[in-house]
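FORM 7B - TANDEM STRUCTURE REPORT

SECTION 1: FIRST PROTEIN
SEQUENCE AND TOKENS:
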Amino acid sequence: MIELEKKESIYHLYMNAGENRWNTSFVRKFSEALDEIEKDEGPGALVTSSKDPKFFSNGLDLDWMQDPEGHSEGGDREVFGEEFMYLMGRIITLPIPSICAINGHAFGAGFMLALSHDIRLMREDRGFICANEMQLGFKIPRPELALFRHKIPANSFFETVQLSKRWTGEAAFAAGIVQGKGSFEELPDIAIKKAEELAPLAKDRKHYAAQKEMLYGENAAINLNHGPAHMLKNSKKFEV
């Protein structure tokens, strides 16, 4: 379901459950992989991808959600929402750089997973990313909207969350949703090179994680009411 291996300072996390649809069991396996990463110290970077050549992650496990008793392998339905959201927040604040290699379709929860990484790279020749909640008749929860708002440029945000636009790799790159692109064959190497470039930033993981908390955590710097001029002129009030 989730495979994790480390080569030198790079962690490779592979989702290996077909379309990689999300249920509680999938969330907990992913969380266990993060436990292993967080036990380490020193430089490192994470590369997340899928073993399936067509799907990165095709969103929620809808069969399980509609009939959890009939698909008991998916785990406890009642705790899914809270545990999934917590996992996404945990990925955002991972104490090492994180790179997502979107090698196939990423819909809904799969798109959220991609956005929770520091860097997104996408297959340019095939595949879409899409927040498809509107198409499924779901409202997007506020925490998820906050993620989209922070990670997607303003001019593309409304199209993504309200109009359920399907972004190709080329379009997502042009819109600034992903930071790199390549063919299916090129994507792994592009991701590894980026991971190797960024891994030294996590020499002090505590500091790397703390800055992420300032960006995306409680009272995040990008959400403060004050403008930068006021904060700069009164910097002692805003010391870490």
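SECTION 2: SECOND PROTEIN
SEQUENCE AND TOKENS:
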Amino acid sequence: MKFPALPLLLSFNGGYVDTLGFLALSGLFTAHVTGNFVTFGATLALGTAGALPKLLALPVFCVVVFLTRWAGLCLERRNLPVLRPLLFIKLLLLSAVAAYALWHGPFAVAESDVMLGVGMTLVAAMAIQNAVHRVHLPKAPPSTLMTGTTTQIMLDLADIMAGEKGEQSAAASARIKRMVVAVIAFAAGCGLGALAFVVAPAAAFVLPAIIAALGLFSNAAATEA
């Protein structure tokens, strides 16, 4: 059985988890964590709930990225697989959130401790995804933020339409194809995440774990098995 490419799965999950977290956890960005600077300021200005998770998201993200890289280097020095074990830890985090969401039900704004725990668990999972992506999939477009990707697509289109020839044009065309697929996957994740939250706000947390499980069997992860 052929599984979708790992970058495609990561992009879909990035959009899905970020959208679902934003809707279910009082506007918390769990993947695009720097966006919480804006929402934290808005929370303080408007006096709404969820300030603490937004404040802690970036520090938690940074610590988990650091630990992920450290763990990866330790595994490398022992000539052990790196990518699949790290993806498995991400799967465990997403599975824990899914199990808790199914047992607990939709999260309420008044449950600040619950929302903090769930939010930081999702932030940790996305931190692992970002670290894995940067180290092991450096040529793939980012999976949690599409602004730079969209900018590059437009720059490459301008080069092609301006009549650039040869290797530069070929490289731009190839890059556009990869990036467009990543943007589409991310957008599909965002749309499905919003739909899932409306239809089944608790069960919606199950899909990211399923997608993460598929990632363990993608070609990139399988090469380390």
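SECTION 3: OBSERVATIONS ON SECOND PROTEIN
The CA atoms of residues 25 and 185 lie 23 Å apart.
The mean pLDDT is 88.

SECTION 4: SIGNATURE
Preparer initials: ____
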